[in-house]
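#dry-run=false #mode=assembly
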Amino acid sequence: MSDNQTSLTPNTREIDITKKTVKMQVSATDKIISTIIYILFSLFAFMCVYPFYSIIINTISANDLSAKGEIIFWPKGIHFQNYIDVFKIPGLGNAFMISLGRTVIGTLLTVGASAFLGFMFAQEDMWGKKFWYRFTIITMFFNAGIIPWYLTMRSLHLTDNFLAYILPSVVAPFFIILVKTFVEATPKELQQAASIDGAGIFTIFYKVILPISKPILATVAIFSAVNQWNSFQDTLLLVTDSKLYSLQFILYNYINQASSLSTMVNLQNAGSTAMATLATKQTSTSIRMTVTIIVVAPILLVYPIFQRFFVKGIIIGAVKG
Amino acid sequence: MRSQSMRSNSFRKFLYISPFMLLLAVFAYYPLYGWVYAFFDYTPPIPLSQSEFVGFKWFHSLVENQVKIDQLMQVIWNTFGISGLGILFSWLPMIFAIFLTEIKAVRFRKFIQTVTTLPNFISWVLVYSLAFSMFSSEGMVNGFLHMTGLTDSPTMFLQSSEHVWWTMWAWATWKTLGWSAILYIAAIMGIDESLYEAAYVDGATRMQVIRHVVLPSMMPTYFVLLMLQIASFLNNGLEQYFVFQNAFNKDTIQVLDLYVYNLAMGGGSYSVSVAISMLKSVISVVLLFSVNGLSKMLRGEGIV
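#status=ok
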């Protein structure tokens, strides 16, 4: 934790220097510039946070007010009915499981494959190593295009198939670069010692490499999980079976059909004893925003905790890639 | 004897990775075979094997009459416009990083950095959903304008054909600015401290330090990223434009990737669509080699 934090605060030592020697030179223009910098950054930070904040307060506010766009700065008429009602939409629970499933399985496989391939490409002796490494890395720089991709996936019967969410992302060149760089930076003696003790390649990988690579594997895992969770295009192209819809895809559909869904939920509720008041009656706005929060919540929860891994990942990747 | 066992050992290592290489062959290389659809008169559900071979018919058809030329030109124009805006403002993350590291209040700086990188991690569908909530006719922005009495009737921000390139650029910038700045922040961290010291001893002001110490040290990073951006000039991606497209902005939002998608999945013209895809990929690879060559010429090393 601290390691990365210091690395993200670059000029700590320079700051002292600035204070000592530059004190006299802090001119009026410098002050104005500082103020402008602070204002601009605050403004941009506000633009980044406000959309999330405003949608959250809207989902817990009276639905008749949120539908008119009147909830702008703070919630009014707080209630949590929306989060109960939204799961009455058929398909949402299923989509949640699909997204969760592809995220968990996809991430496990991608991390495993990246770790193994990163380790293997760091080996000195492998038949055709240079060629296979290039064969892997080159795929970052070209693609056949989405339609040729779609047509070939279809010929492999990977349409309407859960495997289509998992298999294409198992071998991920960028992650392999990350692991390879990391493994190459670890002392060679570790592997040599294990090898002299008679450990085979898999034992070395499992007993030596995996434990010491934890930091970089965490980075790979978090990138890969976010990619899986956010993935939309593969559902759009390859899936017509609504049982395999991912949460992102369902959200996209809901944005366009929110009004009919709200009517449906309201009809369901009409039968129950607790009659919905105007404030808890579902509107297209309340449905749309509540689903949005459900889709974005995992990212919002995970992101602040793992931010340092993301930063580490992109920096190592940039140095090497 | 020994060397033979080593050779067999090295081949065994290859065997261990071969299943993964096979996966890569299937999902990254085999789709190139999909290019053959461009040379057939393919209309599903008739399989490719029973489709008629038509040679370069679809490539010719792209420019066979003025209407088609105009349509394709508009798409190319949009691609150039939106990618061009991106390149025109490619220095933004660098400036963002420079001024962010200038902030002396550590907590404030960390807060800004955390908050501004967040949008990079949400999908385009979510961005669209946020955009819809903020800017639709019943959204917060119109609500605010109405409440403060600035407007009587809601402004249709999203269903507008005006300024589409700019709004697309703005959303992309909103999403990626903080994230893209990280590489430059790393570059700033790598600057030799003695450079700063020397500058301050010489009596340089903050602005002068930025201009003469910080900016020059970031040029290599900027150059590489700019080259990569130029190399992917034609690859705007599909998702952003797909989620933001509607009947009103269709003419100005259709970039090549979206056009190719709409042609095939919307119009069923798979073969034409693959033909365009193919041209696009080939041009992209040529672009990549060109900027790589340029980089070798200017810096002595390539970018890939």
